[in-house]
Specification:
313 residues; mainly alpha; MetI-like fold; 13 helices; globular
């Protein structure tokens, strides 16, 4: 005879063997999936940042194990090299980003029409963006050196530049670095602004043309106000990146001649890797990080303001 089966209650049938509900197990599963990403961020982001802040509180040199508390930030205020690095960084950022914005807007307006020729031109001008800044610096260094550069040799030979080259004189070194940055990153600004132009409502532009508005009036009254969010986005991305410039400066001038091209990041690397002043280098890097955070916050607020204004909110 077969023994009669005993029916299970609905609660016993659905209850998991582990005693955990489905919602609890789902939370554990999601936490386990996110754990590698969190560990990665903590190991490569939060932990180095925390160590940098801790080291910046001490006058800590690898060659002198003794630590003096709270000296770096006070000493930096009286450091002429640090003030010069800030000045060079600000000059580089303002001129490079400003010229890139002007040129990018002009090129974007020229490529606004969606045809085959403009698409080919856009593809070609985006080539510099695909090259890393380190390689771009090496390319221009090879081109502009007075000894054997394909361009620098003739400029020096014809007396158009100093015999030592563009990178060897304080009056031209920083301007040359700004030119290199403009050559590389103007296409990115162009791409951002071109995307903003293509997103403009065509009915407004057509209505302005029907009303007899001149191209300049249309640009000033319709195109530019509606483009302000895209302009601010381009300014935000490029200002943050230009303020942290390092690669092209390091491989071309190394911060020289003298300290004429010394930027904040180059100065921090010099102090940390050349003179082993880990505390001072960390303080410089933290100040640069704080400046970038302030710039990003200010631009984000302006982007929100112009976006609300453009959408009538």
């Amino acid at each position: 005879m077969t023994s009669p089966t005993i029916p299970l209650s609905s609660s016993a049938a659905t209850k998991p063997s582990t005693g955990l509900t489905f919602a609890t197990r789902r939370k554990f599963f999601l936490a386990a999936m996110a754990l590698p990403a969190v560990a990665y961020v903590l190991a490569l982001g939060v932990f180095p940042l925390a160590k940098g802040i801790w080291y910046s509180l001490y006058e800590y040199n690898l060659l002198k194990p003794a630590r003096t508390h709270f000296g770096n930030y006070v000493n930096l205020l009286a450091d002429a090299d640090f003030r010069g690095a800030i000045a060079n960084t600000v000059v580089f950022t303002v001129f490079a980003v400003g010229i890139e914005l002007v040129f990018g807007f002009i090129i974007a307006l020229a490529l606004w029409r969606d045809d085959r020729f403009n698409r080919i031109c856009l593809t070609l001008i985006l080539i510099p963006v695909t090259i890393t800044p380190l390689v771009v610096g090496l390319i221009f260094k090879g081109l502009l050196l007075a000894d054997y550069g394909m361009i620098g040799y003739y400029l020096s030979d014809w007396g158009l530049t100093d015999p030592r080259g563009l990178f060897a004189t304080p009056s031209t070194a920083l301007a040359t670095l700004i030119f290199i940055d403009i050559w590389e990153w103007t296409p990115l600004v162009t791409l951002i602004l071109l995307a903003g132009l293509k997103a403009l409502p065509g009915d407004l532009l057509e209505a302005a043309a029907v009303d007899g508005a001149t191209p300049f009036r249309t640009f000033r009254s319709i195109t530019l106000p509606l483009m302000l969010p895209a302009v601010m986005l381009a300014l935000t991305l490029r200002t943050i990146d230009a303020f942290r410039v390092f690669d092209s400066v390091f491989v071309t001038t190394g911060g020289g001649p003298g300290n004429s091209t010394n930027t904040l990041m180059v100065y921090a690397v010099k102090e940390g890797l050349s003179f082993f002043n880990i505390g001072k280098a960390s303080a410089i890097a933290n100040i640069a990080l704080l400046c970038v955070a302030v710039i990003a916050a200010a631009f984000i607020l302006m982007i929100r303001h112009f976006d609300k204004k453009a959408n009538g909110r």
